[in-house]
Each structure stands twice: as C-alpha cells, then as structure tokens.
Amino acid sequence: MRAKELAIGQLLRLAVGFVVSAFLGVLVAVVFPKTAANLFVEIGKSIAGKVGDREGFGAFLSIYTNNLTVATSAYALGIFFGIVPWIIVLVNGFILGLVLAVVVSTGLISPVTAMLAVLPHGIFEIPAILLAAAAGILVYRGTLKKEGMEVVYASLKLYALSAVLLLVAAFIEAFITPKVAGIG
Fold this sequence. Notes:
mainly alpha, about 85% helix, globular, transmembrane, SpoIIM-like, membrane
C-alpha cells in the first residue's frame, strides 16, 4: 500500500508541476514574443529532426521511439535523486505551453485547431510521461532512499503502463490527430 500512496503523491506533484510550467511557457510567449518565436523555431527543428516528414507507420514509429526515449530517460535517470524526471516534466510542460501560445498568437493555427492537434493523443501522452517520471522517482526512493523493493516493483509497473500508453498516443498522433485537426 505504501508504494501506491507514494506513486499517487508523485503523480499529483508532477501533474501540478507540468501545469505550472505550461503556464510559464504561455507567459514567456506573451511577455517575450520574439524570444518565444526563436525558441519555437528551434523546437520545430528538433522535432523535424526526430520525426521528419514521415507519414503513417514511419511517423508512428518515430513518434513512439522519441516518446519512449523520453519516458525511459525519466524512468532510468530517476535514480539520480529523482531530479531528472522533474526536469523532463517541467521542460515538456514549458514547451507545450510556449508552442501552443506561439502558434495561436501568431495566427499560424486557430485555438480550436491547436487543441485538436494536442488533445487526441495528449490525453494519453501527457499522463504516460507523468507516469514514467513518477516511476523514476520511485526507483530512487526504493533504492537509494531504501524505501523497499515494493516501491521499485511499483515503479516497473508504472513504467510498463507508460510504455503502453505511449504506444496508443503514437498511434493516435500519427493516424488520427492529423485528420481530426486537419493538419496533415
């Protein structure tokens, strides 16, 4: 039972951190629009370098591989005092907020299209990243903080659930989101 309580507590804290960092991303985009536009361009280049112009199954594999790499990093590097999972969650929240604010404020896409571009797969992807991050923190707590193997086993279950959710999210992002949002 202790592992479950720890997991829920970590998930809640990480979710709050994600929302706050997303809000900060929006705030930066509003207060510093030129800086935000430059960051947006760099983020776009990074994403294009990972996914490219692939469509269909190729896009699905690229998206899943990229997101699973992020989740695995959050999980495995959680051993370092639980810091890396927090960094991953906060950076991803900030990027999401900044990108949404930039594309909407510059008129690249409408607010409705922006939401349709994020929500279908985001309802799986964001919780999956939060689960992987919570799992990473549990690895640290179960091993270095010596809170027990029950906590480590719980972390493995969370990570496995994260991997499955990311698979669903990648499928939706590659095959459904472009049609729903009209962006592909």
